[in-house]
Design a protein that fits this description.
This protein is mainly alpha-helical and 771 residues long. It has 22 helices and eight strands. α10 packs antiparallel against α11 and α15 runs parallel beside α18. The N and C termini lie far apart (85 Å).
Length: 771
């Protein structure tokens, strides 16, 4: 059972457990830095090997204290407690479930006494057992793997000494690539003692479980089903219940949960901050590998794409500036260089995405994520029937695809209606503009304000609807869920973001009102300039000021009513930081990039300076993101990811849409080609076919996955089967000596006598074929 008091639980901890806590550091010396939060893969200086008995409390949960006078009306909440129904469910029930599955906890009160902090860790043996159960992938030690492979081939050669090529026995042949034979090999973890030397150790550790691995495994031990070694607690559902809590003054979620977050590692986050947040640094020099190790692969892939996109923008920004200067020299937005710039932008976008596919595959290899989606764990929210797998006989949760497809078909119908509503809102705004035609002041202000309000309202309503629709589809993994959610959101975002610009470019000039600013191209360029400047100034200012002010307000609230200002524990201080959800935040960040990419490629001819402004915006974004994640936000939950998901398809579709968009603006909106309409239509069609053919050719000619990456992935399968699993070499062969009795030399071979005449026929009919 639990101790009578939360503080008693803390006081009764064994000394060796208390040493590894953030709140019980032995000293501030470098030799004991690991006790304050292990920094294995990132700190450059080697550390002494820590004891295998050290327990790191990497996760922190904050709960309501039901014994505090402010929470006497708290009745408990069993949301997220799995299949159990628990009366008066509070933090004690949460701890009880964790202890049941072998986890360790530190429990103590906040300085006000109204909250309970629960820090969660696990013994090394528990991590080993969980990793082995889930076939968790960890990095192999190249030197030890080479030794084991040599022993394997020695055994193969011993079984058949004659099996040689040029006097050399079986071995891994040479291959010309960027990686060594044994580099970046990630295999499933096995907990047998003799296999331990094969796994790469963290700096200062005698095992492979650095902090990111530990946090991921701890989450599976808390959220996983019992047959997957978990306590069957749905953390997401616990937090979601907070939004629906009846107690609006002191809302809490399942078990009375207020917050959950991994704890920052001081040494690592400070080292990352120094390398990330600097005055000037080329985009390609960002510490992507280091931030991935600290923040997880999903966040790492987002920042990897961000720096890749920014680096490529710098190249096209130069061309865009030259074209923009040319428009000033020719004193016309329709400068002679603009159509060439449109072609260049479309080709640039294809090459940028192809280069990213190569880089993404390389990241997946280096981070051990090449087959992540095939082994991804089920979402805690995934509902189905527990049954035996028809494939391998293992336990699995099953949900019929036919039921999911029905829900998806319903979602598509709702999305179609919402898109029609957006188009109707644009028509309504234009109707307002016509109605106010006699009043120049109102005509320029009211429609714009109305459209801005309508867009925000529809965005808010639709986002809630999109989440609800995707929830109803009951997707099995986080990757499947996120891809389907993003697809719904982006369809709406595309129409919402670009419909007004398309209206200006192709429709407004044909109406009775005509375009403002002298021409539709001028008005389109003006609108895009306003959008870019607003996003650059307002967006980045908001990202810095909002979390900063929120953190100060929360810190003041936490110490409120304690008399003189008191010092708070590290976990309490981190609780005051803003929360970075790697799934929701990356969706929002990728949405911002996708909209900006659309501005750059869809309307390149109208605003050639857009790539330069986008490059400036993204460079600032890199710096503000670094500051936020290292100073203003809690450490984000490290989540695995194999690629950027459906965003790659979205970016590619945007690229091909840019061909139609720019061709239409050049041929119909501008006056670069003052021919009759029929001629311009044929030129429009020809322009599209030629450019799409060129882009498709580039796409097909550049492989998505580099050859050396494919080779390393195939090697991984070999190492896992024969070195980790210890499969016996395939000794099957044909022994020709068994057929020595029928062997003949060439001069001894002759034909046989013809068989009986009854075996011969006049034709195929009646012999082979018959009716």
């Amino acid at each position: 059972g639990l101790p009578a008091s939360p503080l008693a639980a803390m006081a009764t901890k064994p000394k060796n457990e208390r040493k590894g806590s953030f709140f019980f550091p032995r000293s501030k010396s470098k030799s004991n830095a690991a006790a304050a939060g292990e920094t294995a893969p990132l700190v450059p200086k080697a550390k002494p090997i820590e004891s295998t008995e050290t327990i790191h409390y990497d996760l922190c949960f904050v709960f309501i204290n039901p014994e505090h006078e402010d929470h006497k009306n708290f009745k408990g909440c069993d949301t997220g407690a799995g299949d159990e129904t628990i009366n008066g469910c509070d933090y004690k029930h949460f701890i009880s479930k964790l202890l049941h599955v072998g986890l360790k906890v530190h429990t103590y009160l906040s300085i006000q006494g109204d909250e309970v902090y629960v820090q969660v860790g696990a013994p090394l043996e528990r991590f080993k057992a969980q990793a082995a159960l889930l076939d968790y992938k960890v990095k192999m030690d190249p030197k030890e793997l080479e030794k084991a492979t040599a022993l394997h081939f020695e055994k193969v050669l011993k079984d058949d000494p004659s099996d040689t090529i040029d006097g050399k026995g079986p071995h891994l042949g040479a291959f010309d690539g960027r990686f060594g034979t044994y580099d970046y090999i990630f295999c499933k973890y096995e907990d047998e003692d003799e296999k331990q030397p094969l796994y790469a150790k963290g700096d200062g550790l005698s095992h492979p479980f650095h902090s990111t691995h530990r946090i991921k495994l701890l989450v599976t031990m808390i959220q996983g089903e019992t047959f997957r070694g978990g306590a069957d607690i749905n953390i997401g559902a616990c937090m979601a219940a907070k939004e629906e809590c009846e107690d609006t003054e002191n809302p809490s979620g399942g078990f009375g949960m207020l917050e959950q977050f991994p704890l920052h590692d001081p040494a690592v986050v400070n080292d990352l901050y120094k390398k990330w947040v600097v005055k000037w640094q080329w985009p390609w020099d960002q510490p992507v590998e280091q931030l991935r190790m600290y923040l997880g692969e999903k966040a790492g892939l987002y920042f990897g794409f961000l720096v890749h996109y920014t680096a490529w923008l710098m190249g096209i920004a130069v061309f865009g500036l030259i074209v923009q200067i040319d428009t000033y020299i020719e004193y016309s937005i329709q400068a002679s260089t603009v159509p060439y710039f449109a072609v260049f932008v479309c080709v640039w976008a294809v090459l940028m995405l192809e280069d990213w596919k190569n880089k993404e595959a390389t990241y997946a290899l280096k981070w051990g994520m090449s087959d992540f989606e095939s082994t991804e764990q089920d979402r805690p929210e995934f509902n189905g029937n527990l049954q035996w797998s028809p494939v391998d006989g293992e336990k699995m949760t099953f949900f019929p695809d036919s039921q999911r497809q029905k829900a998806m078909n319903k979602s598509y119908s709702i999305i179609f209606c919402m898109l029609l509503l957006v188009l109707a809102s644009i028509g309504g705004v234009f109707a307002i503009k016509i109605a106010l035609d006699g009043n120049a002041t109102l005509e320029s202000i009211v429609p714009s304000i109305t459209q801005a309000v309508v867009i925000q309202v529809l965005n808010a309503v639709y986002r809630t609807m999109a989440v609800g629709m995707t929830d109803s589809e009951n997707h099995q993994t986080d990757t499947q869920y996120e891809d389907n959610l993003v697809a719904k959101l982006y369809m709406f975002t595309f129409v919402n973001s670009y419909s007004a610009l398309y209206f200006i470019a192709f429709i407004e000039g044909w109406t009775s009102l005509g375009c403002e600013k002298g021409s539709c191209l001028n008005y389109l360029a003006y609108s895009m300039m306003v959008l870019f400047i607003t996003n650059l100034v307002v967006g980045n200012a908001t990202e810095i000021l909002v979390p900063l002010l929120a953190q100060r307000a929360k810190a003041a609230k936490e110490s409120e009513g304690t008399g003189e200002k008191q010092k708070m524990s590290v976990a309490e201080l981190q609780y005051t930081l803003e929360t970075y959800d790697p799934t929701e935040s990356t969706i929002e960040d990728f949405t911002t990039i996708s909209i900006e990419l659309g501005y750059v490629v869809l309307f390149a001819v109208a605003f050639p300076v857009a790539p330069f402004m986008a490059a400036v915006s993204e460079y600032v974004q890199i710096r503000t993101d670094g500051w936020k994640l290292c100073r203003a936000y809690k450490r984000c939950q490290p989540i695995g990811a194999q690629d950027i998901g459906i965003w790659a398809s979205i970016f590619q579709l945007t690229t091909y849409a840019s061909v139609i968009s720019n061709a239409g603006i050049v041929m119909f909106t501008g006056t670069w080609f003052p021919y009759k309409l029929s001629t311009r239509i044929w030129m429009f069609i020809l322009f599209q076919y030629v450019l799409v053919a060129l882009m498709t050719g580039l796409d097909a000619s550049i492989p998505d996955t580099p050859e050396d990456v494919e080779m390393q992935v195939e090697r991984t399968a070999f190492f896992e089967k024969f070195i980790v699993e210890g499969a016996e070499p395939d000794g099957d062969k044909v022994d020709f000596d068994e057929y020595a009795h029928q062997h003949k030399k060439p001069h001894e071979v002759t034909y046989e006598n013809r068989t009986h005449e009854s075996q011969y026929h006049d034709s195929l009919d009646g012999s082979v074929f018959s009716d």
